[in-house]
Amino acid sequence: MRVCFALTSPVRGGVEEVVLALLQRLDPREFQTALAAPAPLLDALAPDLAGVRVDTTAVRAESWLEPRELGRLDAFFRRWCPDIVNAHLFRSTAVAAPLARLAGVPRVVETYHGREGWRQGRRSGNFVLDRLVARFCDRVIAVSEAAARFLVEGKGYPAAKVVVVPNGRDLSAFAPGGHRDTVRKELGIDRVAPVVGVVGRLETQKGHRYLFAAWPAVVREYPDARLLVIGDGSLRAELEGQVRSLGLADSVVFLGFRSDIPRLLDTLDGLALPSLYEGMPLTVIEASAMACPVVATAVDGTPEVIDEDVTGWLVPPADPPALGRALVRMLADPERARAVGRAGRERVLRRFDLATQVEATARVYRSVLGEPRR
Question: pTM for the complete prediction?
Fold first, then answer.
C-alpha cells in the first residue's frame, strides 16, 4: 500500500511529529511511504528519517495561487502513484486533496489536528469551502473527540466520514529520574529553585504571551523561580521584547528548539500549556509521562488528557490571573504536585501509546482502500 503524506509548514512541531512517527512505524512489509513537504522541514526531519525507507519531494503547495508548487506536487503524485494521499491540516488538504483526485489517486484522507487559529469564532455557515474540500476526502481522521465534534457540529462534515484516532507518543524515552541536577547545572539554575517550563512553537496558538503576563504573580511568591521557554517560531523576537518590558528577563530563559525534551521535562517542577486551542496536545502527554505536573488551558482535546485536580489542573484560555494562581498553587505544595504528576504518568501510559495510534491509522488506510470507488 503506497501512502503519501502532505504537509505545508516548514517548521517542525506537533503535527510534523505525528507524521514522523507514522513514517518510522508503519510496517514496511505492508506500507511504502512518501512525504511531500517544504525543504526546511525535510531538512529538520532528515536525521530522524535516516534508515527509514521513504521517498520525499520538496514542495510547499498551500495555495492555488502558487502554480509552480502545484505543478511540482502534481508531478510527484503522478510519478509516485500513491494509493492514498494523507494530508495534514486544512491548508494542505485544500490543495492536496483536489490535486490528488485530478492526478488519479484512488483515496484521500485528511488528518484534522484541531481548530485553525485563523478560523476562530466562525460558525458552521462559514465553512462552505471546508465542506467542499471534504467532498474530495474518503475519510477524515480527528485526533481527539473534541476535534471530531467540531468537524461535525462546527464545520458540518458528515459524521460517517469522521473517525477518531487519538495522538500517541513513543513513551519508552520518557522515564523520570536522573536528569534534574545535571540539566540545572548546565543551565546555571539552582537545584532548589522552582522551575516551570513551556514547550511549543512560538506562535499565537500556543498562548505564550498570556503565560508571560501571568509570570509576575509567580515571581512575587518565588523570586528565584525560572521559566524555561522550549521551542522556536516567528514570534520569538516579539515575545522576548514582552519579557523585557515586564522586567522578567532574569527569570525567563529562551532555549530555542531542543531535541532533548525528556531531559528538560525531568528538571521541571511543572509544565504550563497556555494554548488558545489544541487538537490533542503531545506536550501534555510527554510531560505527564515524565510524571511532571501540568497546568493547561481547558481547550479542545486537552481535557481528554488532563483529569482536573487528579492528573493536572485546567484554567480558562487567555486568562493570565487564573494561570498565575494555578502555577502558584502547584509550586506551593510540592508533595501534592508530585502525586498529581505520578497519576498523570499512569494515565498516559494506559491511554496514549504510539503503537495504538499507528495501528488505528493503518486500519483507516485498509478500510478506505476496501471501499468501492466513488
Answer: 0.80
